[in-house]
Amino acid sequence: MIFQKRTFYFLSLFFVFFVTQSSYAQEQKQVKKENRGRLFNDTTATDSDYLMAIEKAGEVLESAYNDIDFAGDTRHLFGEMKRTESKLNLILESLKGANPNVRNQQMYRIVLQEIQQELEDQNKAINERNLNLEKIKSRVIELRKDKTLMTLIKDTIRRKQFKKEFANLRKRYVGTDSLMTKNQTTLNNKKRLTVQRKIAVSNALVTVESKLEKSGISIFKKEYPSWWQINDSAASKKVTHNIKAKIIIEENVAEYYLGYKAGGLITLCFFMGLLFWYINRNVKYLKANGYSESLSLLNFKYLNRGVLVPVIVIALNIAVVTNLYAPALFLEFIQLLLLGALTILFKNQWSGVSMRNWLFLIGLFFALCFLDLFITIGLLQRFAFVAINLLGIRYGLVQIKTLKDELYIKGFLKWASILFIGLNVLSILYNLFGRVSLSNMLSLTAFISLTQIVALSVLLKIILEIILLQIYTTRVKRGIEKMFDYESLSDTLKKPFIIVISYMWLIVIASNLNIWESLRASLASLLSHPNTIGSITFTLGNIVLFFIIIWAAHLLQKYVAYFFGEIDDENEENINKRQHSKLLITRLVVLISGYLLAVAASGMPLDKLSILLGALGVGVGLGLQNVVNNFVSGIILIFDKPIQIGDVVEISSESGRVKSMGLRTTKINAPNGAEIIIPNGNLLSQNITNWTYTDNFKLVEITFEINGETIPQEINTIVNETLANLPLVNNAKPSQIYYSSISDGKYKLLIKFWCSIYRTEETISSARQELYVSFKNKGLNFSS
Gene3D superfamilies from the entry (predicted)? Predict the structure, then answer.
């Protein structure tokens, strides 16, 4: 309507000839005046100019009509607003009847905060579209400045000449005005609804925050009467009806959450499917090639029983940690599924007593979940919770000992038991004094903390078994059948994973206690607070992130070889030198990338970094030349490859087999068992004898004497046949026989043949023994 009022005067001139009448005499008189004036006016517009002005006005109106019409992005916005409304209605409805447990309230708060942000974005988008409509209006109003069009409008004779064109203009105007009014009304209604929803979300957030605050750790804020003052109001209600109502509400909330998190859950299932395929492929490869018995030698507890259930355990553990603010029904259902999968793994492995105690723990947890979700708070629920807490305390003091010996990591169970007993004791106290929601929260946290540590212990064992399976499968594919020290390797690998599962356990406990969000906010505030030293401003978070990335880079470059089947096996002869070179380059790339990423994450300005590099340059000039020399030499050794891991080398007075190559030093295992550490700079500055640069074979020699009645041809035949039967001798290269002395019945010989450089002494000893036996059988005396 505003658009009509502002443009009424201007547009009414377009169509004035439809509502005004003039006498013929007046028109004739006006024509004479205009014609007389045009005789002396050289700037009079032509018909072509008028047509162009009318056409321009039509294009403006047509363009305005097209721009006023809602495009696809606007209709998409309206669709998002409908989805937001559906989410909000479901949350508001659930808030009225759901149990006031912490899990649901946490989920409500997160979703309401997201809805609040969505409404802000939608309100902003509506304002932008209203502003666009105002701009379109201004484009139409600009037509008043067209002098040619204004002259035509005032000229009544000319208007009749362009009657058809003006009719088209009027039609376009009516359509544009109608669409403008309709769309403005739509946007105003949408904006009104958005404002109303924002108010509803704010009120709901206040309600949720109030309920979460009541769950705080405070015994002085009484929610319900103490046990000695109790007057059960729930007893008169129909329990069955309440259970059905609660089930419907909890199902709706869980169903909403499933749709809300569908993308993340599908992604998790996809990656778990890939993991299942990967593990199953390795297991099938070993079984198909006759290595199924070797799996039992690796002390597998879970992968030997199948692949599907261990993968499900991994997925459920990840689902618990990545859905901290899921509704209670969803999370407790996931927990029960996890416990069921663990029971399948423990079956036929645990003792009968341990298995019965484990099933009893699951039964208590199931009863606790049912009471928390579907039973209204009252005397029945409070009494049942206390009974479960008492059974839990007894379980933690007596029965839990049977589980300890069955777990891979036993140390965690001690702390979990202490926490389990302590939380059950606190739950009873809070229940007695009327802090029921807090008591229920502590009870659930107690059981989740205990069952979760068992699940995480199994998770760690499964992950280690997957890594060991990968290492062994890769070695078998390379032709290395020798079993490695898997126990020592497991102890090395589990250290970083223990840190990860400890973190997972702590955040699950903190989330169930409703303190994780505040802890995270406090920690984020501490880490993000800017600190200034001189002209340098930094945050603790940047420093912590810097060291975490450095630690992760060093850890990754240390363990990356395990995934290619490489372990510290000094007796390994079939070393893949090409793979070792790739691993060295990979480690170098990981380290450099890690340091660059750490510097970028630290937030250090480039100008400050240049100052640091300048200071480092001065340090290099003053005393770090050797360090930099060794570092650069290490990079040259990696890419130039004069020596590689597994090579047998002689450097100056030292000799041995290359064990490892780093960016600063190279380790060599000497024949006597010593480990020689040589700076990389020294390797490049000295002559290196590499016995295995081309292959792993060495030419060795044996001297001996033969006494007896024979001829050289017979001696040669015996030597060649004996060496051909020795598996350690490389018969692909012919042996060489030389006579240093020949006399009647006495021969001195020098034999040269090829063997593996890693087993030189063993091959020479075997050759001497076999030659002795061969000549002895011919009645000849052999001496060496």
Answer: 1.10.287.1260, 2.30.30.60
